[in-house]
Amino acid sequence: METRAVVVVGSLNMDLVTRVERHPKPGETVIGNDLRFFHGGKGANQAVAAARLGARVRMIGRVGNDSYGENLLVGLSAEGIDTSKVRPSSGPTGTALITVDAAGQNSIVVVPGANAQVVPEDLAPADFAGAAVTVLQLEIPLETVSWAATLARSAGSRVLLNAAPAQPLTDELLQEVDVLVVNEFEAAQVAGAEEPQTPEEALELARRLAGRVPVAVITLGERGLVWAGAEGEGHMPAFEVEEVDTTAAGDAFVGGLAAALAAGEDFISALSYGSAAGALAATEPGAQASLPGLKDLFGLIEQPAEETLIWARAREEAKNPAGSDEESVWDDEPLVLDREAIESLFREAKRTEIERQAEAVDRFLAAIGYPEALVTDLSRLSDFCPTGVEDAAETLRERIRQAYGVEIEEDDFQLYLWQLIDKLERHFLA
User: Fold this and answer.
1) Which residues are catalytic?
2) Among 185-189, 214-218, 244-248, whose mean pLDDT is lowest?
3) Burial track 215-250 (b if 16+ CB lie within 10 A, e otherwise)
4) Taking all residues of the chain, what is their mean pLDDT, rounded to a whole number?
5) FRET label pair with 84: which of 179, 233, 398, 406, CA 20 to 30 Å apart?
6) Mind spelling out the 3-state secondary structure of 182-242?
7) At 197, phi and psi to the nearest 5?
8) Is residue 320 predicted with pLDDT exceeding 90?
């Protein structure tokens, strides 16, 4: 069974973006500086954000039978996202008309198109199998969002709802939600209250929302975020960056939060990852084009290499497999894979032909016969080697050769190291 996946049910849009000195007043015409096309939609943005930060992502939604739709699917596939559940529609692909002012602040008009045709019948329980986190937004019909939340909870997935664009939410939907993410305006709409003007007021509003969901998070832009509920409460200041375009900042936050939670991070750490992702997204123009990768993320939060997002996962079961008395073949100090090596390995694996990846992994698994001792060794693979991928791969190859008498071709082993670990984990820990 697939584990630690993120399933995103939501919108896919083509964004048409123009820059202006200031936003027009009602009835006023202003001149835009240029017109650019970006892949967007809150659902697709959050899917890409999570994928770039290490999550395995499945996207569920609809696109039109047009060039916009084709381009969006190609873009998601290039990020390693499973788009097999994105259905074609007879209508046009969703679009968003976005203006960005000189201060980097945006206003957005969304034309739903095919997104409005995402119906509950598009969803099946199997779509959520193995999902650690299911991410939802409100750019598709509310009844579909509600049904997705129900199916996700039934599958054992944590449900993260980004209640945007703002609209009234039923108690039936919210009782299926584990984490509610909203900005100040959306929080006021959901709670039926005044928009908070300070972090203190926002925290009080988050407490009110936490009466309807286990955890409520309110993002405050340059003032950071607040949260309240089952994970405690507090105010987290924003990372200081030079804002260029805030279009995808909220989606980057949601994607980063989902990826971190799916990787087993505690909630406060996951908030920090999401906050860093949102801050970095605001430093570049466009939606998906602005979403950061792991290297940029860790550069901002200065996270120690041995605690990086991909590898910082709970492995207690792997460390002490039930009924196994075998010791690990590694008795020396843990190895450490540095940030740059992780990023390089992950990107290389993403870009490698899928069939070749699978063949190499299967050859290795057949050769070693799924040895039970390797279960324990998986807990050590979270650390690896300080000098990079080549030394990490060579060290691991040598130790497996010594322990099991198996020779693995160097090119195969190094190129497919990430897929190997992933497949072994799913075999032993499913």
Assistant:
1) 251
2) 244-248
3) bbbbbbbebbbbbbbebeeebbebbebeebbbbbbb
4) 77
5) 179
6) EEHHHHHHHHCCCCCCCHHHHHHHHHHHCCCCCEEEEECHHHCEEEEECCCCEEECCCCCC
7) -105, -15
8) no
Structure confidence by residue, pLDDT tens digits, 75-109: 999 888 999 999 999 889 999 888 988 887 888 88
Q: What percent of the chain has pLDDT over 90?
A: 46
Determine how β-strand 13-19 pairs with β-strand 94-100: parallel
Residue 344 backbone phi and psi in degrees, to 5: -60, -45
Domain boundaries, the chain: 5-303, 316-429
The tokens of 109 are what? Answer: 């008009």
State the average pLDDT over residues 130-154: 96
Q: Read off the pTM.
A: 0.68
Mean pLDDT computed over 98-126: 91
CA-based nearest residue to 370, from 425, 300, 327, 305:
425
Q: How far apart are the first and last CA of the chain?
A: 6
